[in-house]
Amino acid sequence: MKQNKKKVIIITDGDEYAKKTIEFLSKDIGGTCLAYLSDNPTHVTPEEVIKAVHQANADPVYVLIDDAGIQGVGAGEKVLLALANDPFTEIIGAVAVAAHTKNMEWSRFTFAIDNNGELIPNAVDKEGILVPDTDRINGDTVYLLDQLNLPIVIAIGDIGKMYGKDDIKKGSPITKKAIEIIIERGGSNE
Hints:
Blueprint: E1 6-11, H1 16-29, E2 32-33, H2 46-55, E3 61-64, H3 75-85, E4 89-97, E5 106-108, E6 111-113, E7 119-120, E8 123-124, E9 130-131, E10 136-138, E11 153-156, H4 173-185
Parallel strand pairs: 1-3, 1-4, 2-3, 4-11, 6-11
Antiparallel strand pairs: 5-10, 6-7, 8-9
Helix pairs in contact: 2-3
């Protein structure tokens, strides 16, 4: 009997806004949110996250990781790397969250969604505003995304914020759109 892989969506933010937004959206869209394991920065071990992913009741499983500005491979990215190497897990996409950090961490992405909900080919900043002539996103926890050959990476501004345009009271439409596109294009176990 073939074991189905757990489908995972990586969210590169773990602050309180991100936790509340992803918990809310997981109830709306479906899936299992592991926000209780997230923090800013990530404190749980890769093994704890993998165990929780394996035990999740519904796909996709939303994993929030955050390096809180730590350069290189921080705790959040160690979780990402472990999930990418786990034979029972399939990362179907990532929501790459922009940050103000100028620590040279960046990633290419499939496309971005600005704070008006428009799909754009250029990067966005933390507020979800277009960054002209840039095809990569700066962020705290995006260093490894570029190296893992994920099926889809969507760049957005700061989850639950973006001048109130992604507020949970409005249904967090920008983050929701990013997740829905990842699910729509998500990998298959067939």
